Amino acid sequence: MSDVTRQEFMSTIEDSSHRVDKWLADKSPLSRSRIQGLIGEEAIKAGEHVVQSPSERVIADTIYTIIIPAPSNPIPLAQNIPVEVYFEDESLLVVEKPAGMTVHPAPGSPNGTLVNALLHHAKGTLSGIGGVARPGIVHRIDKDTSGLLVVAKNDSAHQHLSGQFAKHTVNRVYVSFVRGYPREKEGRIESRLARSPNNRKKQAVVKGTWGDLTASDKGRHAVTNFKFIAGYGQMPKAAVGTPLASKIECRLETGRTHQIRVHMAHLGCPLLGDPLYGKQKAFNTTKNTDIAKLNAFMSQFKRQALHAQTLGFIHPKSKEYMEFFAPLPDDIERLASYLDHLE
Q1: What is the pTM of this model?
Q2: Where are the beta strands (DSSP E) in the chain?
């Protein structure tokens, strides 16, 4: 049996006025939302051209090919993968996820995830509320973000912790290193976030909702509190004391997909190393050897400079407040050391 299903449809001149997602949904047995998901996975082609957006217009006299991957096993395997445990009892674990590790299995990442590691470590004592693919998972952080997560070991703990996240009472502090600097030393960013209409892999601030949630009912409410911690270097052609890069502390009230990355980029301070929202051009060296060294390091730094450093919550059973702190991982420490050398 083939591992994938392949479907092909030929367009005509009459089809060229239609959106590609709607046209394919009408032609195939797949729903429009499924078509949109496959477009996001770059699994649909128009001839040799990969369809990039659901809103693209159909190209006349072209063969459209849909590649549907075979369904993966929904039950993740326990794998002996080392995991840094900060705390563990009969109710929960607090662990540090390294950058590069996905939290739970998903298409393209069926193994090597935090869930696979936890299944081996906890030997089946994880809550089932998240379903078979996400046992114990109360909240998530991006694959290339490092830092602390709390994991539930039973359903009662899961419900209690989820309630704290829903009420925005969990203390979540992230450390980020960004390009440029914020105009205000600290502030509260409030907006709605939704999938970008131009790139399905990205989230974006819904137009008009930056500071005015009533401007649209689209997207999800997102709040990030930020504080300027330190500046590095001197931005060319700017007033003396204008940093080239900054260290920013972010406290989350909500936990939307890519929230800090989107908010910082919209603020004009994209995270260093961010391949999706950051400006990847090298810093202008102006014959400065320290900046040249930073550029050389950044060329090998392949993830956003973001670390979930502090996590605080009420223990579901003891009802005591617990707080955990994870030092910066080695790669971000090295980045910080290069930034410290800038004048």
Answers
A1: 0.80
A2: 4-10, 44-46, 49-50, 63-69, 84-88, 92-97, 146-152, 171-179, 186-195, 203-205, 220-232, 245-252, 306-314, 321-325
